[in-house]
Design a protein that fits this description.
Blueprint lengths: L2 H38 L4 H9 L18 H14 L1 H20 L2 H8 L7 E14 L2 E11 L7 E9 L15 E7 L4 E4 L12 E11 L3 E3 L15 H6 L3 H19 L16 H33 L6 H29 L9 H12 L8 H15 L2
Parallel strand pairs: 1-3
Antiparallel strand pairs: 1-2, 2-6, 3-4, 4-7, 5-6
Length: about 400
């Protein structure tokens, strides 16, 4: 590694450490507001202001635009810390910061600069799957559609609306491969109708509301291709792709839930007594064996997640395309860590007794949040089957 490259790595690590330290300070505000967040079904104003004032929403916005310009691992460590403080806040923050990273990396460069380079930087949220309809008109598109799961939308300034492009005759436009042309529009929040419909068992405070866009004109510069593989920015992090950033963000959320569950159960059993135990539950060999096993699972998952995402970004930084195996491992890690988090959280739940049943309870929120986090369509277990198709050949060659 050259001296210039080493200096760049040192600077990158220093910025990552700085923003992680900021996240730890914000985490104190989040923990104090966690009960109110769940009661209000969205991030409270003090938490929003703490995240905004510390610049955390823009961890994946380049320094040129006044953002943190973090590498993917450093950004994910911030997401993990925010989730450790509260699962709902971590999920909503992940949705905001990762969709913002996608927007700045892939939206028309003029539009991205307008959204993110000024003093009043955009925060994005919303569904990017192309379930809406956009009619191509002069200068842009007229977009309509009803969407779900707008996590973090209560404080977002632009809301994503995925759509299939139609011509002025109402016919879907197809690309060179014969597939419908799909795009994402970033719509100002005052042009979006929020429909509510967020009454759930877990991730209660994410504010993942349904919403509707009705025949709104969106300039071309505020749109991007849904399935683009070529970013408009030169930074390596954007070369991880929409799935690498957007789906990958679910991994540190899972890690944060698992970390918090281990912290909570370690405190609870230290003074817990139950019939059949000689002394405190936490002093029993049975508990300590299970704790050691699950703590190792958490640490192994954390290491693997950050290894594969760091390796992929290093490849991109070297100017090389990611291999099929690297893409597969990004998906593998993002899905597998959900299973690990679920196991770790349920281990803590079983040993906590009634401590997860009575509200408010940080561990109780972890249990409910983990149960919902594992249900996201983009981390369905079938993604492991897809990943295995690209990973297996490496083992068969040996």
């Amino acid at each position: 590694m050259t001296a210039i490259a080493e200096a760049s790595v040192d600077t990158q690590e220093a910025r990552g450490a700085e923003y992680l330290a900021r996240a730890r300070q914000v985490a104190k505000v989040i923990e104090a507001e966690a009960t109110a967040i769940e009661a209000q079904a969205t991030i409270t104003r003090p938490v929003y202001e703490a995240l905004a004032d510390s610049g955390l929403f823009w961890i994946l916005v380049p320094e040129e635009y006044g953002g943190a310009g973090l590498d993917i691992v450093s950004a994910f460590k911030v997401v993990q810390e925010i989730t450790r403080a509260d699962g709902s806040t971590g999920w909503a923050f992940m949705a905001n910061s990762c969709s913002t990273g996608v927007a700045v990396g892939y939206t028309n460069a003029e539009g991205a600069r307008e959204m993110f380079a000024g003093p009043d930087k955009a925060v994005t949220a919303g569904m990017i799957v192309p379930t809406g309809k956009g009619v191509r008109v002069e200068g842009g598109y007229r977009v309509s559609g009803r969407f779900q799961f707008a996590s973090g939308s209560a404080h977002a300034s632009f809301i994503g609306a995925g759509f299939v492009v139609h011509d002025d005759q109402g016919n879907p436009v197809v690309d060179a491969d014969g597939q419908p042309e799909a795009r994402i529009a970033w719509v100002p929040r005052d042009q979006v109708e929020f429909l509510g419909n967020w009454d759930v068992m877990g991730m209660v405070g994410t504010g993942s509301y349904d919403y509707q866009v009705t025949d709104r004109f969106v300039p071309e510069r505020f749109t991007m291709s849904t399935f683009s593989t070529v970013p408009v920015r030169p930074e390596a992090v954007y070369k991880l792709g929409l799935l690498g950033i957007g789906v990958g963000g679910h991994a540190p959320v899972a890690l944060g839930l698992a970390e918090r569950a281990l912290q909570e159960i370690s405190h609870l059993v230290a003074a817990k007594v139950r019939p059949g135990y000689d002394g405190f539950v936490g002093d029993s060999d049975v508990f300590k064996i299970e704790f050691a096993r699950h703590e190792a699972l958490y640490r192994a998952a954390r290491s693997y997640v950050y290894e594969v995402f760091g390796d992929a970004e290093q490849t991109a930084a070297a100017g090389l395309p990611l291999t099929d195996e690297q893409h597969a491992r990004l998906r593998q890690a993002a899905t597998w860590v959900q299973e690990v988090a679920g196991d770790v959280v349920m281990f803590a739940h079983r040993w906590a007794g009634s401590a997860t049943v009575r509200n408010p309870s940080a561990l109780g929120r972890c249990v409910r949040d983990a149960a919902v986090a594992t249900q996201h369509a983009l981390i369905d277990r079938m993604t492991l089957s897809d990943a295995a198709s690209a990973i297996l050949p490496g083992y068969r060659q040996s």
